[in-house]
Design brief:
About 40% of the residues lie in helices and about 10% in strands. It is an alpha/beta fold.
């Protein structure tokens, strides 16, 4: 049944919020063994010395044998990651990565980059709302494919949500110790997505600092920029504003011994100051708009009614220069409506992934 005109307008408004067609603003635990790629590789380069082709090749090697799922991790890096402006300082051993929070997608972006560089398992802590929308479904589908194939990277990335309520949230944070043996931790310390570029991070849970000190691991402060407008437009973003690339700046690690000399408030202020010290000036626009990508996603939304995330993922894999055979089969499904029975690692999963990302719009019925 064709959706009503009012519903089409509502969905279009939501996509505009995600893609930004709004008016522009006026102005000591034991180290875990790293996951090994399926094929032997050369000794890894330091994080900040890896070229973008190096990063892509490393991630594809970690995710070998899972064509479409690997492409869905790789293609967004091609469009949303500002490699030239970023400084990665991922640790070869488990560490704590504490970041600000601009967009919903950056948790995936950081997790995939961390996997490519280190192979160390990662626990990403996010807001429970992530699992109530397309982002949660996207995350679960990718994780399911790794588990179904018993892939070496199946344990590489876990995404968990902090409960809404205060007492359960505190219990959750204090229970992180049991989940972090051999695993790095990624937390957006301010909890909520920001509204404008350069917005300072002002909060950090004292329970999170307590867990960090008990782990006795270095803290790597992260500042993400380029994904938000200069001034608040009154809503938060799932994908970067004007589809700009996200710049990921990482400060030198803060060693536990340096924090233990401070009082609890001073400890948190030290971490927040490191994150905020890498921020662009508030009231500036630090991104670079990709209007061509923006228009492609909007056109796909108008034609299909799909969400901003699905439109973006479809456009990203459509434009891949090195797609896997599975991704080529997905393109054929979208054009001709025939699900493949051969040439895919897991036909059942592929069918559900193809139906999800296209909202079933490629399927022909008789």
């Amino acid at each position: 049944m064709e959706p009503s005109r009012d519903r089409r307008i509502t969905v279009l408004q939501r996509l505009r919020m995600d893609l930004d067609l709004a008016p522009r603003p006026a102005a000591p635990l034991a180290r875990a063994d790293a996951l090994h790629p399926a094929h032997p590789a050369r000794a890894p380069l330091p994080s900040d010395a890896m070229s973008l082709p190096d990063l892509r090749a490393a991630l594809r090697a970690r995710l070998s044998g899972i064509g479409l799922a690997a492409d869905l991790a790789l293609a967004p890096i091609d469009h949303l990651y500002d490699h030239a402006g970023s400084t990665l300082r991922f640790s070869p051993a488990p560490a704590c990565y504490f970041a600000n929070h601009q967009t919903s997608y950056e948790s995936f972006l950081l997790a995939f980059l961390h996997l490519a560089v280190t192979g160390v398992p990662l626990l990403a802590v996010t807001h429970p709302g992530l699992f109530d929308n397309d982002y949660g479904e996207h995350c679960l589908l990718l994780a399911e494919q790794l588990r179904r194939l018993n892939h070496p990277a199946a344990d590489a990335i876990h995404v968990v949500a902090v409960p809404h309520e205060l007492k359960p949230a505190r219990d959750f944070l204090l229970g992180l110790l049991e989940r972090l043996a051999g695993r790095s931790l990624l937390v957006h310390v301010g909890a909520w997505r920001e509204l404008y570029e350069g917005q300072p991070v002002n909060t950090m849970a004292k329970d999170l600092m307590e867990v960090t000190l008990r782990l006795h691991r270095p803290i790597v402060p992260i500042r993400i920029s380029g994904g938000l407008p200069a001034q608040s437009l009154g809503y938060k973003f799932h994908l970067p504003y004007r589809m700009g690339r996200l710049t990921i700046a990482m400060a030198p690690p803060i060693e536990p011994a340096a924090l233990l000399r401070l009082d609890p408030l001073g400890q948190r202020r030290t971490v927040l100051a490191a994150i905020n010290g890498m921020a662009p000036p508030a009231g500036s626009y630090a991104g670079r708009a990709n209007i061509a990508l923006l228009k492609r996603c909007l056109r796909r939304h108008v034609q299909t009614g799909s969400s901003a995330l699905k439109c973006f993922l479809m456009e990203a894999v459509e434009m891949m220069a090195d797609p896997s055979r599975e991704t080529e089969l997905l393109r054929e499904f979208i054009r001709y409506g025939v699900l493949p029975s051969e040439g895919v690692a897991d036909p059942e999963w592929f069918a559900r992934q193809a139906m999800w990302i296209s909202d079933g719009r490629g399927l022909k019925t008789v």
